[in-house]
Hints:
Elements: H1 7-14, H2 18-26, H3 33-45, E1 60-66, H4 73-89, E2 96-102, H5 106-120, E3 124-129, H6 134-146, E4 150-154, E5 165-169, H7 171-185, E6 190-196, H8 201-218, E7 222-228, H9 236-247, E8 251-256, H10 259-272, E9 279-283, H11 287-295, E10 300-303, H12 306-322, E11 330-333, E12 336-338, H13 351-357, H14 360-368
Parallel strand pairs: 1-2, 1-3, 3-4, 4-5, 5-11, 6-7, 6-8, 8-9, 9-10
Antiparallel strand pairs: 10-12
Helix pairs in contact: 1-2, 1-3, 2-3, 4-12, 5-6, 7-8
Amino acid sequence: MPRKTTLGDIAKLADVAPGTVYKALSGNKGVSEQKRKEIISLARSLNYVLTNHALPARRLLIALFPSPVGDDRYFYQYIWEGIARRETELADTGLHVIKVTFDGTQENQKDRLEEIFSLYKDTMFGLLTIIWEESEFLETLNKFSSVGIKIFTVSSDAPSSHRSGCVMADSYRTGRLAAEYLGSVIEGKARVIVVGTKRDSYNHAQVVRGFFDQMNTTNPQIQIIELYESRMYPEEVFKTLQDFLSRFEDIKGIYANNARTTIRILEIAREQKQHRKLFVVGSELFDESSQALREGTLDAIIAQNAFQQAYEGVSVAFRSLSGTEQITTKEIVPNALYLKNNLPLEQHAQSQSIIQMLDKEFLKDSEKTETKQTIPRKTT
């Protein structure tokens, strides 16, 4: 059976982005009349089904997440891989995902959201993104929902934004898993350090609450020390960690509660384990953390399954679009505790190929749109 023509096929022949094809076929602004006629003609010649020269429904989903580079690579490469995998599986449905990155700061994310709204408000049906501080984004998100664009969040929740769906891991259970492991392998009185970041304040609070609650049950003799990076001085937390380890011999455990912190403490843990008994729990499963677990630098990994969160995020958005089944407002993806003996043989992402595919269509639409952009674009 011959492969169905997609919007991507038409866009390639017309030398435009798929978003421009959406605009042309749906009769929306932002495309010259000459280009609109050319696109419609191409669609007909390729036997692309049109109804009154228009798409029956908007099927464009915009995904906005940090670029998988630097310290953000260790989590977001799997977010992007999950999105790409599910989009490929849904290709025959006409769903199209434009993938947009930001540099990991709230300021850049807001700029990107404004650009997306300006370019795609007439053609997109949904926005898939992460929201760390809901209150900071409500005004921007309400612009999308006010024109009927559905909002879906992954790895975080923003219930006050009237989001249609949320897919995430159970943050409270994540903290409990870490405490259950450390509390069971450390005997008697000791100290344990929780080290990480507070970028996502709500989920962070849930992880810590789970950690404290479980430790009180598993080993109430353990004293918990919390160390978190400052946005202004992110390196100071690692200096403080080294200082604490040199001063207190009764520190028997470390829990790095996110991927960015996990990669940064590996050298510290490797050096400390040469002369003391120390149990170290990291976060998220990626090449470097898996290797650290195999060699004994990490003793366990708590993974929140970024790939599955993103994969299910696209699935929830598609089910909402199709209207064929009711969606739950929040879907919880199981997290897992990994030891040496249950490490998976292979992982999903190939980060370089993911980086190469991101932002291309978004940037192409930004260059070709006839709508003037007033917000400077920051290249990631």
